[in-house]
Amino acid sequence: MGIRSSEHLTPGTIYSREQLKELFGISDATINTGVFRPHGHDSVWLFVTEDKTPDRTQYRDELIGDELHWEGQSAGRTDRLIVEHRINGLELLLFRRKRKYEHPNAGFRYEGTFEYICHAPGDASRKKPSRFVLRRLQL
Q1: Domain containing 30 — which CATH number?
Q2: What is the pTM of this model?
Q3: Which DSSP helix (H) or strand (E) runs through 109?
Q4: Residue 1 burial by CB count (10 A; 0-12/13-18/19+): exposed, middle or buried?
């Protein structure tokens, strides 16, 4: 059984990736992607920027109340991780920001834990990502 990252984070707090790396002793460069599973953790971290800079893939992501409407990665490699998170005993954590520099050090607001509700499968051959709906878990 691994670490549950949520036990060490406070919802509503702003965390930069650098702070998270320091807090959890992470050196893995994949923390800079949108979907990250820290080694030794039973957690999947989702990093969402709603208004992306022009040099980034323009995924359509939006938090509406307690529902996240989110596009997965174009190649679909992490889709299964999201869909099967409960079966595999993994928690989904959302780190969200409206714009890249909305918070100091390009930080994200930690929104808490979410659960998979449904998705429309994408098409990796056309680089069309899956569309997910996730819901915030109330503790």
Answers
A1: 2.30.280.10
A2: 0.91
A3: strand 108-120
A4: exposed
